[in-house]
Specification:
It is a single chain. With 95 residues, this protein is mainly alpha-helical. It has a domain of 52 residues: Orthogonal Bundle (Arc Repressor Mutant, subunit A). The chain has five helices and three strands. It has a three-stranded antiparallel β-sheet. It is elongated. The mean pLDDT is 81.
């Protein structure tokens, strides 16, 4: 159980939350949640040099701007038309 924190005089909890809101650096797990992918996907991109990351002691930090830039560089999913699906189903039936 974590110890209860004392409130600072003249500082409300909501103002502290507002100060902490604009996070620039994200840990791997937070970057994965932000991107909607697994933490292994993020870790692999960092290890392969595709996503820039920084080490702060034992923590790996990913800047939100770098993460957004990397996400925008990922290939777009191409639309599949009915002809492609018909060919796939036909091949699956022949196998």
């Amino acid at each position: 159980m974590s110890p209860r924190r004392k409130a600072l005089p003249g500082v409300s909890a909501s103002s502290v939350t507002q100060l902490a809101a604009p996070v620039r650096g994200l840990r791997v797990a937070d970057a994965a949640k932000y991107a909607g992918v697994s933490h292994w996907f993020i870790r692999t991109a960092v290890w392969q040099g595709k996503l820039r990351a920084y080490r702060a002691g034992k923590v790996i930090l990913i800047l939100r701007d770098d993460l957004d830039r990397w996400l925008n560089s990922l290939p777009e999913v191409q639309r599949n038309d009915a002809e492609w699906l018909a060919n796939r189903q036909q091949k699956a039936g022949a196998a």
